[in-house]
Amino acid sequence: MPRLRLGDWVDSGVNWPVAHMSWVFDAIRAVVEGMYDAIDGVLTAPAPLLLAGILAVLARWPRGVGAGVLAFAGFALVDSLDLWDRAMSTLALVLVATLIALVVSVPLGIWAARSKAVSATVRPVLDLLQTMPSMVLLIPAILFFGLGTAAGVTATLIFALAPGVRMTELGIRQVDAEPVEAAEAFGTTPRDTLLRVQLPLALPTIMAGVNQVIMLGLSMVVIAGMVGTGGLGGAVNEAIGRLDIGFGFEAGVGIVVLALVAGGMGVFGSASDSTDLADDRFHTAVATSTDLRVWTRRHDFGAGTSQPSLHPDGTGGWVLAYEKDPANHIALRHCPDLAALLAGRSDRAFDAPRTLSGCAEGTPDLTAVRGDTVELTGHYRAGCATDRQLRATLWDFTHWQARPDHRLDQALLAWGTAGNIGDRSRIALMGRPLVLIEGQCLRNDFGSWSTYAYDPVSGRADRVGLRTPGGSGAFANPSAALITDPDGRPALLVSVFIPKEESAPGESGERVYWREL
């Protein structure tokens, strides 16, 4: 079988740009070396321990005090080994390669996420880059840029590029459909949907890609040291040439310290979104789901927040209301868009004064948002003894008026409700407005909570015979919404709180159910 001259073809393909495009490579080399010299100059200008303290603070920010202390100790060890300048040269090389990799990989990942054709084209190229032996990448780098920093940065960049593209594409593709559909439903342009919804939600995954880019860049520094980049990679190569095991071990320790610190700072945007509820207080949070079973917490609004209600403002923004303590009261926040809501950023805020009770007002349920006017229902602690219903209006997030809702109270009192009349949720079924509301038959008896359906037209309430798979007997904090279920069919989504006093095994706490209509 005749020999395939693949190598000759590659040589021809490389020789042409070397002969005819040297000016392009000279310009790229000047830019890369300029970036490297600038960053290296900044890193080596301060005293080593001063910069170690600054980097330790940066490491502490996303990962805690322990990480900051370990970072400072690691850099102090590098300085004591007389490898500080080499370590900063290596860090500068990795930072330059990472910055260029992100400039290339993030837009390419976005493009691949939005186009199946681009994704199918890019994927085998990335596979090739990740499987190609790293030493092979030095050959074109040396041919195009010669020995030195530019060749080392180029080889490092090519080797570390793939995870940035893959994780960006993955992060955008994994964004739940609901936020995107909601943004599109409110007329958000594709560009704004990308910038204000998809990218913020994909940021943890993208930042995990940044972490991988940094790690791969650091793993390449020893190979890059073979083309004259110096730094810790050059120190390892010197140790290999002299068979100096001790010096090679010291340089390896320096690389490990950089990996631990730089990698830790690289995951700042992907810090855990879990919430520590060890304070034994209620927390309001916003979460998303694609199947109504597994939920992802997006933002926690802090301890002492509870009973939230959410309503669109008609312009792409959202109004959020919740009960807040201390001094139990109703708080309202306006988020300009969905991304801001999921990130917990508000541009307007109002904490309502208590005007009907000196003890508590809460459980808000937003009923309408018309321009700068917000209408809601809630409860107040009548006589600081028993919860009763209120209606309230907020104008321009500055003026507040609350008034008792005696008609709703009377509808539940007719059922012999001797305890609290509390949380409620509005819903329209087959064009008929209804209010699901909790009522406590016996005061201070959490096992006597029931859910009622109140008709605001007739002023009557009927008891709702809720049934759970386990047969729980008490239901509080009802909420209902019409949705499209995971199979694309219309469904009724209901959430209730089941007190432990009358709960079936495994059913106490907040529960979410849905039923196809």
The coarse overall form would be elongated
N-C termini distance: 68 Å
Mean pLDDT: 81
Number of helices: 15
Uncertain stretches? 264-278
Strand residue content: 25-35%
CATH superfamily of the largest domain: MetI-like
CATH architecture descriptor of the largest domain: Orthogonal Bundle
Q: Name the structural class.
A: alpha+beta
Give the % helix. 40-55%
The CATH class of the largest domain turns out to be: Mainly Alpha
Fold and architecture overview:
This protein is of the alpha+beta class and 517 residues long. It folds into 3 domains: 35-270, MetI-like fold, CATH 1.10.3720.10; 282-404, Tachylectin-2, Chain A, CATH 2.115.10; 405-517, no CATH class. Helices cover 47% and strands 26% of the residues. The protein contains 15 helices and 17 strands. It has helices at 6-20, 22-44, 48-63, 65-80, 84-114, 116-131, 134-145, 149-173, 177-185, 190-219, 221-224, 231-242, 245-266, 338-343, 406-413, and strands at 283-289, 295-303, 305-312, 318-324, 329-335, 348-351, 361-370, 373-382, 386-395, 399-404, 421-429, 432-440, 449-455, 460-463, 476-484, 490-498, 509-516. The strands form 5 sheets. A 4-stranded antiparallel sheet has the order 3-4-5-6. Strands 7-8-9-10 form a 4-stranded antiparallel sheet, covered by helices on one side. Helix 5 runs antiparallel to helix 6, helix 5 packs antiparallel against helix 10 and helix 5 (84-114) packs across helix 12. The chain starts with 5 loop residues before the first helix and ends with a strand.
